[in-house]
Amino acid sequence: MIFFHGHKFINKNGKYYTSGSLNNGVFQRYLNWFGEVTVFANERYATKEHAKLINDNNEVTNVNLDLINTKVNLRNFITVIRKVKKAVNNHDYIVVRMPSFYGIVAVRYAKKMNRKYLIEVVGCPWDAFWNHSLKGKIIAPFMWLFTRKTLKDAPYAVYVTNEFLQSRYPTKGKSIGCSDVVLPRLEKGTLEKRIEKINLLEKGKPIIIGTTAAVNVRYKGQEYVIKAVSKLNKEGHNFEYHLAGGGDNQYLKSVAKEYGVEDKVVFLGALPHDKVFEYLDNIDIYIQPSKQEGLPRALVEAMSRGCPSLGSKTGGIPELLNKELIFNNGSVDEICDLLGNMDKKMILAEAKRSFEKAKEFDSQLLGQKRNHFYKIFAEGARVSND
């Protein structure tokens, strides 16, 4: 089997590490059904910024990697397409994770070569490109159209949402809604510690808001929270904003300086995944202000730690949250209204709600659902190929 995605694996001294969630555990899903798995994706060389992210836990060791260096440009466009074609031809089963240019091309050749294929839909290409840049706004309509066309006839599709992505990119084939989030088993003690933390909140002490996301990606929306913190604190509140995430933070620092909250905005940089939960346990409220998401892992992880959470009306975020705690994309005023009205009673109620909702993402339950669907795909593909 071959898996296509635009993920960027970090190359350090010839060893490869995931820069996100595509780790050995995820690839084991495919190894359960296919004897050998190759991953077709991107490669970038390790920088100082990656130092915190590279450890034995995220080294990729159980699959073959067929990687393209991220410096590949339009001059290599035809070469890349030929490489995708060859990769499809050399494998019996095709899985693509979208949005992905490689995925669109791979499906095209899979259909021509009569290969059975499965598509995983983890995000909306329209939102991703439209909110990225001016260049992205030019690309967005094409990626939206190609993705819809690619999904339409897909024989098998897995969506990370229950409604949002299915409505934008429907398929006529077999499909399920199954989050890609993998949570450790939720312990009752986690909620008890959260409740204790809330009960110890003191008037006059800062309430800490948190977001886990890359700080150099504008569509993650942290700038709107910074502006909201400035407005709220001028009105007499006391909020701090702690941001966990890698990337160049100069733009967000400039926003904090412009709005007079440099001392209230803390940049923690990229955190190893095992440290993210410690960070979440230290904040009081989690916010997902993104303009583009599928079903955000970071939000689900925050909810699993009992974090009272609010978020934008984007992607699958409204499927997770109390509808009273959802705001329109980029609306500073709405963020201010929601945060300003969150008293201790509401924070406590939302902490309990978050923890209960996160139980739906129990790794064992989702694993069984996903495993059953991949069994159907694997057995169906074998029958067809035979």
CATH class of the largest domain: Alpha Beta
Mean of residue pLDDT values: 90
Helix/strand class: alpha/beta
Rg on CA atoms, Å = 21 Å
Could you say how many structural domains there are in total? 2
Low-confidence stretches: none
CATH architecture assignment of the largest domain: 3-Layer(aba) Sandwich
CATH superfamily of the largest domain: Glycogen Phosphorylase B
Tally of DSSP β-strands: 14
Number of helices: 14
Q: Order of helices and strands, N to C?
A: EEHEEHEHEHHEHEHEHEHEHEHEEHHH
For this structure, the CATH topology of the largest domain is Rossmann fold
Relative strand content: 15-25%
Short description:
The chain has helices at 24-31, 77-89, 101-112, 125-130, 134-152, 164-168, 188-199, 222-234, 250-258, 273-282, 297-304, 332-340, 344-358, 363-385; strands at residues 2-12, 15-18, 38-45, 64-69, 93-98, 116-121, 156-159, 174-177, 207-212, 239-244, 265-269, 285-288, 309-312, 326-327. With 386 residues, it is an alpha/beta fold.
Q: Tags for this entry?
A:
globular, 8-stranded mixed beta sheet, Rossmann fold, 42% helix, 6-stranded parallel beta sheet, 14 helices, alpha/beta, 2 domains, 386 residues
If you had to describe this structure to a student in words, what would you say it looks like?
The structure is a single chain. It is built from 14 helices and 14 strands. It is an alpha/beta fold and 386 residues long. The protein folds into two domains: 2-182 and 363-385, Rossmann fold, CATH 3.40.50; 188-360, Rossmann fold (3-Layer(aba) Sandwich). Strands 1, 2, 3, 4, 5, 6, 7 and 8 form an eight-stranded mixed beta sheet that branches. The longest helix has 23 residues, at 363-385. The mean pLDDT is 90.
